[in-house]
Amino acid sequence: MGIKRFLGTNKITKELYRKIKKSYYRRKNFTTKYSFINRSTGSDKLCIVLAGYKNYLIPSVMGRIKRFAPKDVDICIITSGKWSEEINELCERNQWSYLSTKRNNVALAQNMAIDLHKKADYIYKLDEDIFITEGYFERMLEAYKACEESTDYNVGVLAPILPINGYGHVQVLREYGCEEVYKSLFGSLKIAAGPDRKIESSPELARFMWGEALALEGKEYRLPSIDEMNIRFMNKEQEIVACPIRFSIGAILFERKLWDAMGFFRVEKGPGMGADEAQICEYCMLESKPVMVSHNILVGHLAFGTQNKAMKEYYESHTSLFLPPTYKS
Question: Which of 283, 288, 292, 297 is the most exposed place for a label (fewest CB within 10 A)?
Fold first, then answer.
């Protein structure tokens, strides 16, 4: 028997060992130098936004948050591993909190942000390349609470439909009758995630999901804007579905008690990109608390890694597609 197992099972030492272990992991998962400008109202609803590395998206992404966030949701913008004066000034103008951590690790940064907002029970998490739509915050919370009443599952995490996502792209393509053009140009259409999937690797497909036309046998196919798609999905009969695959967590809602039960996000070496996603998906599956997807809420996602360069160029030449609706009048 190893020493750790002995200490953890021995009647005399196990309680002390448990406390030491808990203290160790808390230090590991929360310790870094940081700067926190606190403008929290003490709300039970908190939105944390990982930002600072795609600042060219600020007018659209942050403009949409400003446009659509209710006053009863605290907003905290996080820059992991850096200080951004541009983000600092943005937060000051909008009366949002700003957390900057010295160490660049997204799991650590999120742990810090949640821990600093002691009264937040509902946590909205957004990445800096997510474009929310009208009613996002209100309808996400409504759908989350409806899961317990209208589904057969104990909800772990709630997510919206994202067109550039292993699950969401299939729903969007089916809704708009684009299955055949997809199959002809990109291959089999499956609910699947991973860098080998076209939805995560093809710039051409990413541009199509954002409204660029594709042609097949003389017929042109084009998807509407995310705001138009959101209205269409919003007006459909309520549908909340358990996601059967790993879900990219760029836009999710979960409760603080889930984060507590997970033992927080585990801080690993390096920046930890994707580690929080793997951890939350694993926990939800093993604990029978699945990622649930509302088919009545749709938001935009710019791109995955290998699509980013091409989609940055597309964004800069088609910015009006991404700005909040009030900017377009």
Answer: 288
